[in-house]
């Protein structure tokens, strides 16, 4: 007998870090070199199997552009997990990611699973954020940490598996 869980996930982070690209890679296994910025938010879902559980993700991909920031709260209100995304080639996006975490800590739900995705791993030559620093930060807030590339798919499935595992197994 398989247990089925519905898990809401919200993606947060600066515009252009690759939130929509990560979701599209995970859900549809596609990648676009020139994706339009998200307007408001978009919703997608996908189920995966972890241990003896079927996890059905309801994914809210929020818009990172400044003018939409006040909307984000609507999407993380009752979420089980949040993916905080930054672009490893953009230091400012890393700092912004930490602000999103502070915002979640203040206004988000309790006992939320947080995963940090350092995206655009394929551009590691232009890396502006030290990996050790990012991992230490993730540890300090009890978050999952993964480097990802929506372009190559590196780490993307594992990111969602980690979240599913943390929610079901602990
Ligand atoms: P907003 O919707 O405005 O918040 O942006 P977003 O975070 O959803 O970013 P989006 O997924 O639209 O990606 C922005 C640009 O970065 C796109 O042109 C993508 O092709 C590119 N991009 C996303 N992920 C990667 C990646 O892993 N590697 C590389 N090289 N480019 C990426
Ligand atoms: Mg987007």
Protein model, in words:
Keywords: Nucleotide-binding. One of its GO terms (molecular function) is GTP binding. With 170 residues, this protein is α/β, with parallel strands linked by helices. It contains five helices and six strands. It has helices spanning 19-28, 72-76, 91-107, 131-140, 156-168, and strands at residues 3-12, 41-50, 53-62, 81-87, 113-119, 144-147. The chain has a six-stranded mixed sheet with strand order 2-3-1-4-5-6, sandwiched between helices. Strand 4 (81-87), helix 3 (91-107) and strand 5 (113-119) form a beta-alpha-beta unit. It is globular, with a radius of gyration of 15 Å. The two termini are 20 Å apart. The relative contact order is 0.22. It binds guanosine-5'-triphosphate and magnesium ion (MG). Residues 13, 15-21, 32-35, 37-38, 63-65, 119-120, 122-123, 149-151 line the site of guanosine-5'-triphosphate.
Structural descriptors:
170 residues; alpha/beta; 6-stranded mixed β-sheet; 5 helices; 28% strand; globular; binds guanosine-5'-triphosphate; binds magnesium ion; GTP binding; nucleotide-binding; GTPase activity
